[in-house]
Amino acid sequence: MAGNSMFLTPHPAGQDEDLRLALEDLLLDRWLSTKSLLANTHTWALRTSRSQVLAAGAAMGEAITAWCAEEPADANALVMRARVLTHRVLSAHRLTTRGHGLLPRLSAARAACEDAARRWPADPVPWVCMLALAQLDVDHRHRHSVDHWANPPEAMLPCGPWPLLWQVDRRDSPNREAYHRMLQCIQARGQGAVDFTRWVASQAKPGSVLLTLPLYAYVEDFRIRTASGQLASTLGYWTNEQVRYYVELARDGWFAHITDWTACSMVDLNYLACTLTACGLPGAAEAFEAIGSFAMPAPWQQVSETRWWQDDFLQARAFALRRRSIR
Are residues 23 and 54 in contact, defined by beta-carbon separation less than 8 angstroms? Predict the structure, then answer.
């Protein structure tokens, strides 16, 4: 691995220092800073993103269980319990074959989501969690819920957990994670992912983070096609006019409207930088500057031809900065 990779600082909290400190406390099984952080998080978007990151850390310990025992009626404690149980079920699903032993955990996670939704009806996060759990419902012959297989709003789109997505939309529209969870559900079922993200992008307003959603679908499509030997040329995939159109749309329709990079998802910025580089489009240098040292494994791992995604990131960044300097 290149020595320069030591200067990269991949961290789930990104540039959110308050989130970083709360996460460190959770890893020590302390929950008071998480309580304080959520109490002082005043937008649904930030509540959604922070609670997602916190859950990944809390899932490794029992801090949230202790918090719920101490303050069983606290809405933030209940939503974090839903978050943690959802995270654990999804993690267990990735590690097991054919979902053996997941049903009790899945039922517990759903019950926790319902508890949190009842405690604070306006909160979109419990519904985001329920949407996340829908990705485990992949066999239409053995459906977990009719809501997971609802008809789409347009014929070109796949059936899916649309009612859950609309529940989130009624509370916080557009909610970035909700649309990513919807995408993950569609991807788990094997078809319709790219069509879904194109439809979302067609509905999105200028400046909307949802304009980055097609980038995720294309990177995953590229990974699958590469792994299965379906691509005659990796370069040909990224020079496709349709792919380039949606990468440019993310650059010009979303990134160009940003006034505060620190409020952005570092993962979105990494996807933009990666796809701009792959397509050979201008603008990658500015995306890399917004990222700073906060490189993220995704999407670099999915498109890398080596094990060292950090090296690919550094090489792409150096190329983008050189290219800009000679323009």
Answer: yes
Reference 316, options 265, 268, 271; nearest CA is 271
Please give the span between the terminal C-alpha atoms of the chain, in angstroms, as a whole number: 30
- Enclosing H/E stretch for 289: helix 284-291
**pTM given for the model:** 0.94
Per-residue pLDDT of the chain (327 residues; tens, 9 = 90+): 344 444 788 788 888 999 999 999 999 999 999 999 999 999 999 999 999 999 999 999 999 999 999 999 999 999 999 999 999 999 999 887 555 678 899 999 999 999 999 999 999 999 999 999 999 999 888 889 999 999 999 999 999 999 999 999 999 999 999 999 999 999 999 999 999 999 999 999 999 999 999 999 999 999 999 999 988 778 899 999 999 999 999 999 999 999 988 888 999 999 999 999 999 999 999 999 999 999 999 999 999 887 789 999 999 999 999 988 776
Whole-angstrom distance, CA of residue 81 vs CA of residue 68: 8
Cα separation, 111 vs 109, in Å, equals: 5
Sign of CA dihedral 193, 198, 199, 204: positive
Sign of CA dihedral 9, 53, 175, 243: positive
Measured between alpha carbons, how far is 235 from 254 in angstroms, rounded to an integer?
25
